[in-house]
Design goal:
With 503 residues, the chain is an alpha/beta fold. Helices cover 36% and strands 19% of the residues. This is Adenylyl-sulfate kinase.
Length: 503
């Protein structure tokens, strides 16, 4: 798809919007031609038909709705009847224009949100991104493929020796060139960042038969069958004639190759079809949990199972826990003792020198990072997200972030957990579950008294709810524990979990 040169003033006058990550992934696939025959985001009839029957309104098979939904403030600036106001400029997260969608249809799909349907055209090429050289269009990939059969492989996980044996066997059986698709639209099922997955696949490339590797922003939509059908469609558009099955039902656009089960043969150190290896002589593939346990403990991955180059990439992405970044989020009512315990843990780490820690106290962050925010639910969420972002950056670089906000809402605490995991860090939720009555008795800042008097609106525990965690990793009650005892419990938890050797 060629770039679209917009008339003067369009970028200035047309509304713009940054789609959510899944929509940006769909946009890239639309622009590259990987979603052919689609040329834009689906409008009403097509979207409804795909959701109901798995085909476009004209009967063309298509497995999943590819839609764009915008908030009302963006929709109000669009007018399908006016040429300039019909265009919506789509930008990347940094605000750079990427594409324009011609809004042929605007439909409210839920309160305050509207579906925009219409064709898309590229208005600017992506300027950066890890492994941009691997994000080739289907046309570019097809032009470089050899004649004959092409075996598509969707590599959603690192390739260990069992998977490499399956790919090699399937390619030799049908006499095919291998085309490896590496999804880069988000973390892997094991939580690996997309760039880590790409590096691990490249590390195994010398053990794959002649292959082409391409990065595609394919994300799971939570439906195994539809995910499989969509992957088959994309693989076919890139030139694959066959697809190595991943367990999902696929068909129609491509032929499916079912991989054989392989086992390691202790007699000669080779991976062979399972039936060819006597039960007493075989070793089977390690589970993801077993692999992660070895990495967490800093133990080497066995070479019989994982090529050394792949193991090196996995060790870089998942260092031992005592070296890995960690976000420690203390949540609880005002006066529960969160900040006191967090500072005590930080002091202990400073004294030992074993790990570097940064303390992000709720009140301090309010003054330095979130000045101007109020205490509405939206502002509370925004404050916690800011804390989570900074904490995740600390974890990204191997530090420990000690966060002590109230964090009253479960949804936002879960977002912070996801932020930590997205950068390869760990997350521990500590519920400082000191009872409300005890917190109110302490009332060091006089806030409960003001809240009871109606002077502090939306005060957690009095006029605003506190959603007690159901997923806390550790629970403390400072009405029953001294500060020293609470700090010791946290440190013991970190030692037992492997994040500290000792304190």
């Amino acid at each position: 798809m060629t770039d679209w040169v917009l008339p003067d003033g369009v970028l200035r006058d047309a509304p713009s919007y940054t789609p959510r990550p899944a929509e940006l992934a769909d946009l890239e696939l639309l622009l590259s031609g990987a979603y052919a025959p689609l040329t834009g985001f689906l409008a009403g009839d097509d979207a409804a038909s795909v959701a109901r029957r798995g085909s476009l309104a004209d009967g063309t098979p298509w497995p999943v709705p590819v839609t764009l939904v915008v908030p009302v403030e963006v929709a109000e600036r669009l007018d399908p009847g006016q040429p300039v106001r019909r265009l919506l400029i789509l930008t990347d997260p940094e605000g750079a224009p990427v594409a324009a969608v011609e809004a042929m249809e605007l439909t409210e799909v839920r309160d305050g949100w509207f579906r925009v349907g219409g064709p898309v055209r590229r208005v600017g090429a992506p300027e950066h991104g890890a492994f941009r050289r691997l994000r080739r269009t289907p046309e570019e990939v097809r032009a470089g493929l050899p004649d004959g059969r092409v075996l598509g492989v969707i590599a959603t996980r690192p390739l260990h020796r069992p998977q490499l044996a399956q790919i090699g066997n399937a390619a030799r059986t049908i006499g095919a060139h291998v085309l490896v698709f590496v999804p880069v639209a988000g973390p892997t099922p094991e939580g690996l960042a997309p760039e880590v997955l790409v590096r691990s696949i490249l590390a195994a490339s010398d053990r794959i038969p002649p292959a082409t590797i391409v990065a595609v922003p394919l994300a799971s939509r939570g439906d195994e069958v539809r995910d499989g059908l969509l992957r088959a469609r994309v693989a076919a558009n890139y030139g694959a004639t066959h697809l190595l099955s991943t367990g999902a039902a696929v068909g129609g656009a491509i032929r499916v190759v079912v991989p054989r089960d392989f086992a390691y043969d202790n007699r000669d150190g080779q991976w062979r079809p399972m039936d060819d290896v006597p039960p007493r002589q075989r070793r089977t593939a390690m589970s993801v949990d077993d692999i992660n346990d070895l990495l967490d403990r800093g133990s080497p991955l066995p070479e019989w199972h994982t090529p050394p180059a792949v193991a090196r990439e996995l060790r870089k992405a998942r260092p031992p826990r005592h070296q890995r970044g960690l976000v420690l989020l203390f949540t609880g009512l005002s006066g529960a003792g969160k900040s006191t315990v967090a500072r005590g843990v930080g002091d202990a780490l400073a004294e030992s020198g074993e790990r570097r820690a940064t303390t992000l106290d709720g009140d301090v962050v309010r003054r330095m990072l979130s000045a101007g925010l109020g205490f509405s639910a939206e502002d509370r969420d925004r404050n916690i997200r800011r804390i989570g972002f900074v904490a995740a950056e600390v974890a990204r670089h191997g530090g420990i972030a000690l966060c002590a906000p109230i964090a009253p809402y479960a949804r936002t605490r879960a977002e912070v957990r996801e932020m930590a995991h997205a950068v390869g860090g760990d997350f521990v939720l500590v519920h400082v579950a000191t009872p409300l009555a005890v917190c109110e008795e302490r009332d060091r800042k006089g806030l409960y008294a003001k809240a009871r008097a109606g002077m502090v609106p939306a005060f957690t525990g009095v006029t605003d709810p506190y959603e007690e965690p159901t997923d806390a990793d550790l629970t403390l009650d400072t009405s029953k524990l001294s500060v020293e005892e609470a700090v010791e419990e946290v440190l013991d938890f970190l030692v037992s979990g492997g994040w500290l050797d000792s304190v």
